[in-house]
Amino acid sequence: MRDFPSSLPPSLRFGLYFLLILAFLIGAQAWKTPAPPALNSPVAPTPTLVATPSPVIMENEGEALATPLPAEYLENTTQTNGIILGSVILVLIVIGGTLSVILRRRRDDDPPGFEATRGATDDISESP
Questions:
Q1: Nearest Cα residue to 107 out of 117, 119, 96, 115
Q2: What segment(s) does the record annotate as region Disordered (predicted)?
Q3: Which domain holds residue 83?
């Protein structure tokens, strides 16, 4: 029982992993959505509609001015630096992991003594 996942055939192992991931996603979705209201619960009040105020046109001697930036944007100007840094680190982790797996598989697939012939050409002329 210790080698449970590796003792299964690859197609069955893939199916098992797929079902586990699907169950996780369905569970996360069910947990996220609110439960529907019961039939005998009191009727929820209808929402009231509030009219959106009309935009104010700012003019400077007949020319329209640019829309000013909201205060939140001006107060948090350096937050994008952290997002960009985090994204770059994640990309480097993915690229580094991919390269290490490729190199490890290439090294594992090489026949014994391959390192000594790595610089040799593949042309082998037959002697008469």
A1: 115
A2: 107-128
A3: 78-111
Query: Is 116 contained in some domain?
Result: no
| CB of 108 closer than 8 Å to CB of 101 | no
The total number of structural domains in the chain stands at 2
- Bridge partners, residue 60, by sequence: 63
Q: Which tokens sit at 17?
A: 């992993």
pLDDT 10s digits, 49-98? 888 888 776 656 566 667 788 888 778 777 788 889 999 999 999 999 99
DSSP 26-62: HHHHHHHSPPPPPTTSPPPPPPPP-PPPPPPPPEETT
Residue 46 lies in a domain: no
The pLDDT of residue 97 = 94
The pTM for the full model equals: 0.33
Task: At 114, list the tokens.
Answer: 């391959």
Best CA proximity match to 67, nearest among 78, 76, 58: 58
